[in-house]
Amino acid sequence: MALEHSTITARRVFVTTLLNPKALLFGLALLPPGNHPLFPPRLAIFVLSVLAVASLWATAGTVIVKGTVERKARSERWLHRCAAIWLAVLSAGLATKDLLG
Q1: What CA–CA distance (Å, rounded) separates 4 from 45?
Q2: Fewer Cβ within 10 Å of end Cβ, the chain: N or C?
Q3: Alpha-carbon distance 87 to 79, whole Å?
Q4: pTM beyond 0.70
Q5: CA proximity to 17, closest of 30, 4, 28, 8
Q6: 100: phi then psi, degrees, rounded to nearest 5
Q7: Distance (Å, rounded) from C-alpha 60 to C-alpha 64?
């Protein structure tokens, strides 16, 4: 069975992003109910956070693609470390939120 080489297009990235429910799940878990008085400002913070993280990931992807093989390997290691640190911080924050009630 031969694998076809397919190009990554903006449309494919968009569809894949739409099919990925992580942002929706985070939003549903972290935001108060829609009738809560703190809903609008927290929604705004959530949207700005999503935009900031998406921009950072897009920038990181651009940097990785433009680099040489050696530079790319260093960037990937750096990116993996940053992703691991971010996941640890997020997990600790969620655990603390649950513990503090």
Answers
A1: 41
A2: N
A3: 12
A4: no
A5: 8
A6: -80, -15
A7: 6
Q: Name every residue whose Cβ is closer than 8 Å to that of residue 57 and which is 6 or more positions away in sequence.
A: none
Asked if residues 72 and 64 have their Cβ atoms less than 8 Å apart, the reply is yes
DSSP line for 14-79: HHHHHH--HHHHHHHHHSPPTTSTTHHHHHHHHHHHHHHHHHHHHHHHHHHHHS-HHHHHHHHHHH
Task: Report the alpha-carbon distance of residue 42 to residue 44 in Å, rounded.
Answer: 5
- For the segment 32-90, what is each residue's pLDDT rounded down to a tens digit? 888 889 888 888 888 888 888 888 888 877 776 666 555 656 667 888 888 889 888 88
Structure-block tokens of residue 100 = 């503090």
